[in-house]
Each structure stands twice: as structure tokens, then as C-alpha cells.
Amino acid sequence: MCLAILFHQHFTDTPLALAANREEAYDRPALPPHWWDDRPVFAGRDERAGGTWLGLNCSGLLAALTNRAPSQARGNLPGASPPHTAQPGATGSGVAASPTPLATAPPRSRGHLCADALAHPTAREALAWARAHLAAQTYDPFNLLLADGSSAWVVHWDGQARVQELPPGVHYLAETDVDDPAHPRIAAARPLVDARLTQTWAGSLPQLRPLMGLHQPDLPERQRMCRHLGRSGTVSSSLVALPARAPSGRVPSAEVPSAGVPSADGTQAGDLAPPDLRAATYEYAPGPPCRTVFEDRGNHLRKAP
């Protein structure tokens, strides 16, 4: 299972940053982050199923996906609203989508959901799409993180969808609920991250690189930052930061249900121009970060289509 650490409006020099370790079978091939030929998405690509676990688009939307343990009980999110019977795609802060029965068709690869979400310019618009999409399409359990610097959301799916809006701060996502206080890996990671953070992403980045590859010898393997579990383990790591999105002055589209919902700072989804990707950070370790040097993928990112 992956570990994603979101820095949502936490640093003074960037509104959106992410540090993430991907766990997968060692024999499952994947391409490093790049601009895809078939859609304007910058992401790694699973060569077996064709989807992604983490990516972003030219509008500054970031999407990340973790597999979810199927045995997780529902309804234990701090502050989350319970499922209700409103139509999928209804707007509102922290409101869950309507219960959706599992279909009988084989589940679609979860990595395609992450890639498809990046067809939308903002986190709120991607969330509205996901709610409607999950009413008709089934997947194995997952957690989907959507963030754009103005708002951040997690969709928990285990046959029914629950949505959590994230306040500014540092958030942890593994195979249970976001910021799960009972998750042993999250509990072990939190003090390590806190001890290494400064007020800026630029100041924290040199500390985060070695942290993602850390082996805590006093902890079980499954609780460590970088894990080696026999046939699977941490196969890559990513450190991503996007600059702020400037006001654009354009009018939000009335066709997008979530576009007129103001964020915490009063801006609306359609009020912000895409970020300048020339100022973005994207570092990627194409192997276990304990022994693999992070590569600068920013030069590839700046060659946006």
C-alpha cells in the first residue's frame, strides 16, 4: 500500500506539495512521470493496466490514488458526514455521495480513475465528476486524493463513496481513512515528518528526500517509510510542489455543478488561472528511495503540450 503526505496550504512558498512512496509488486513495470501522448496528463504510467497512481495536469490539479483495505469499516472519518441519498454530483463541503451498489461487471483498474480525474481543471470539478462516475462504474476499494492549491479532497470508496474535504495542514493517506490516527505507519511517519519541516517547501525538501527512504530498525517492516516485503515493496518515490494559481478574471462555467462553490479563501473554481509549471518541483526516485537517487523530472514537466 502507498503512503501519500499532502502539504495543503502549509508552506509559505507553495500552496500544494506532496511526498509519496508507491508500493507495488517488484515485477510490475511502470514508466516514470512524463507527458502522455494520448491526453494532457503528466504522470507515471502502469505498463500493465495503463493507469497511474499519481499525476497532475496543466491546470494545476494533482490526483493521487492509494489502494484501500477492503475490510475497513465505514463512517469513522473525524468530522465526515455520513452517506445520504442526495444525487451523486450534488455539491457541498464534506458531504458524502449517495450509496451506490456494486455492479456485477469486473472492476475497472483504479489507475484509470486517477488518470480520468485529471481531465478536469480543478479539484472541485474533478470531485463532481468522480461522484457521478462512481454511480455507474465499480472499482476495487481505493482512496482518491484531489488537490489544486485552493481546495483538497479525499474520496474513500469501498462500494460506496465518502468524501472528506481537507483543511489546510499536513495530511497522511495510506490504505485506510485519511489521517487515520490508528494506522501504525501514519503514526510512525507523523513525528518524523514534523521534525523535518520548515516553513517553506524549499527548506523542507532536502530533509524529505532521505526521509522517504528511511528504514526505522525498531519498527516492523510494514510500518517503515521505505518497505521491502518480499515480492513487493516501495518501488518509487515522488516529491511534487506546484506554485500558486493567480486570479484569472474569467467567469466560472454554470455547466459545472461545483464551479460556483467558494473555497475557504473566498475564491471560486473558475477564478484562478493555471499555475506556471516552470516554477514547479517534480523529483522522482525510479526505485526504492533508500538506494535510488531522486531525479529531477521538472525539465520534462516544463515541456507541457
Fraction of residues in helix = 10-25%
Give a count of the beta strands, DSSP E runs of length 2 or more.
Answer: 13
User: What is the annotated CATH architecture?
Assistant: 4-Layer Sandwich
- On the 0-100 scale, what is the average pLDDT? 85
Order of helices and strands: EEEEEEHHEEEEHHEEEH
Structural class: alpha+beta
Low-confidence stretches: 73-103, 250-267
Biggest sheet record: 7 strands, antiparallel
Beta-strand share of residues: 25-35%
| CATH C-level label | Alpha Beta
Distance between the termini: 32 Å
In the sheet with the most strands, the strands line up as 3-4-5-6-7-8-9
Number of domains: 1
What is the CATH third-level topology name?
Penicillin V Acylase, Chain A
Number of helices: 5
Radius of gyration computed on alpha carbons: 18 Å
Fourth CATH level, the homologous superfamily: Penicillin V Acylase, Chain A
Characterize the overall form: globular
